[in-house]
Every structure is written in structure tokens, then in C-alpha cells.
Write a structure and sequence with these properties.
134 residues, alpha+beta, four-stranded antiparallel beta sheet, 6 helices, 36% strand, globular
């Protein structure tokens, strides 16, 4: 019995270790750089098949153009939440940021699936009153 408990004591922490989110955080930084440069098509090309399956390039480019036109360049970001899930379908990471743009604040969420050890964007959501009022 003692051996079983000892084995569980070593196994359980490693079974629930959070994935390394640094590569996904770097992708968010890369996204913001491309947004500031107006490189919307280039960013779309780097998204995953799941993203492309629900969002046409022209639609996504139009959305990012509106975001950049109404909110301006990124001035600062603060990660406020990290969620992850690992299972038989792989690992998913969701990062939420409070982002300050030149024209005001927004909340952004980036959803990634980890494919061959690399984060691939499968979802992007932005919420800002300025997108409605401007």
C-alpha cells in the first residue's frame, strides 16, 4: 500500500502539469506586430485549418482592418487569464488579454491547439465598445 501511495505521489503532479504557454504568448506578440503593420492576410495564412474552416480570409481581413482602423496600434498588453486543456484530442491553450490600443481598451482572447509542439491559432475574439461606437 505504501508503494502505491508513493507512486501516486510522484505520478499525479506530472500528470497535471500545465503546458508551456510561452510559445503561444509569442504568437500573440507576433499577431499584434502584424496587426500594427496591417499585415492581415499574412496572419491569416498562419492560422490553423480549424480557423480557416470557420472564417474566410476576406471576412477575417475585413474584421482586422476594422479593428486596426477603429482602435489603432497596440500600446500595451496584460495577460489576465490562461486556460488549458489536455486530453486525447491534444492540448488547447486559451490566453485572455486586456489590451490597450491607441484609441482605447479591448479584451482579446486567443485560442490555440498545440500541433507538433507548436501553438496554432484556431480562434480569436475581441471585445471593445469602440468597435461598435466608432
Amino acid at each position: 500500500m505504501r508503494t502505491l501511495l508513493l507512486a501516486l505521489a510522484f505520478c499525479l503532479p506530472s500528470c497535471f502539469l500545465a503546458p508551456d504557454t510561452a510559445p503561444a504568448e509569442q504568437e500573440v506578440e507576433h499577431f499584434h506586430n502584424l496587426l500594427d503593420q496591417g499585415e492581415f492576410e499574412r496572419f491569416y495564412e498562419q492560422t490553423g485549418a480549424e480557423f480557416k474552416g470557420v472564417s474566410k480570409q476576406a471576412d477575417f481581413v475585413a474584421i482586422l482592418d476594422a479593428v486596426h482602423r477603429k482602435l489603432g496600434d497596440v500600446k500595451s498588453v496584460k495577460k489576465t487569464r490562461t486556460d488549458w486543456h489536455s486530453g486525447t484530442g491534444g492540448t488547447s491553450i486559451a490566453l485572455t488579454y486586456e489590451t490597450t490600443f491607441a484609441e482605447g481598451p479591448a479584451t482579446e482572447q486567443f485560442n490555440f491547439h498545440v500541433v507538433d509542439g507548436k501553438p496554432v491559432l484556431v480562434g480569436y475574439h475581441i471585445n471593445s465598445d469602440l468597435l461598435i461606437t466608432k
